[in-house]
Amino acid sequence: MKMQHLYDKDIQKYTFDKSNCSSDNIEHINSCEVCKKVSESYLLLSRELKSQPEPELEFNLTELVLDRLAFSKKEPIYNYMLCLIIIMSLGAAFFTIYIFRDVFSNVFSTNITISNYFILSIAILISLFLGLDMYRSYYKKINMLKY
Amino acid sequence: MNSIFITPAQYIDSDFIKMGVFIFIIVLVMLFVLLIIRKILEHKLKNKILDKGISESIVSSILQRKSDDHHINIKWFAILMSVGIGLFIVNYTLPLGIHSFAIMAICISVSFLLYFWYLKRLGK
């Protein structure tokens, strides 16, 4: 009768996780010289590997990586640029109104009637509609970022 | 204000032109304000995307305008329809008064509600 030796994974289980090894396998390894030798060689290999020192790089990796990272220093300047552009746009708009103030005063020279307020109220309502829709779309996109 | 209806022998009433210019100026100012608000919101969104460091595919799906473009037609349909219906009803309740404002507010708010109900149905 030819003895059936255990597979490597069973021998490894015996070597490193004896508590979960089946009793048949334990009995076989205890009685079989070949499997016992394989188990001992696994144990020796594991000990040797653990005794090896941790690899150390000759250069400072942290420094090299940090040097490569381009930290954006432009961010606060960009925010100020945006505010500046908005202020300049408003300034340009008011300047235009000031230059053409005679034209505007001519347009509004008649008494402001209820029809003017009516048009203004329609424009405000539509702007509210559009503004709320814009904010809803923005809020939806911000929520997408959270997930 | 003189008669709105123009007879062939008359020029276009100056009050009518003034009203047109007034509407144009109001529209310009409102569009300018809305554009500023939109740019500010977009800037905030992009800043948040950069801070989070999200993958490119997700960023492109968030920033794509295609999803918004589908609704723009329906949105403007709702706005113009509500304004048209409101003005039509106001025409039968002349002269202009507080009730005219109320009619317009109700019409625009109903269209607002229908538009968002439509978006909600589409979202499902």
Describe this entry's structure for a reader:
The complex is a heterodimer of chains A (147) and B (124). Helices cover 75% and strands 0% of the residues of chain A. Chain A is mainly α. Chain A has three domains: 8-51, no CATH class; 69-109; 113-147. The longest helix of chain A is centred in the last third of the chain and has 33 residues, at 114-146. In chain B, helix 3 (66-91) runs antiparallel to helix 4. Chain B has four helices and no strands. Chain B folds into two domains: 1-64; 65-124, no CATH class. In chain B, 80% of the residues lie in helices and 0% in strands. The interface between A and B is large, with 37 and 45 residues.
Number of domains of chain A: 3
Distance between the termini of chain B: 50 Å
Total helical segments of chain B: 4
Provide the low-confidence segments of chain A as ranges. none
Mean of all residue-level pLDDT scores of chain A: 81
The total beta strand count of chain B reads 0
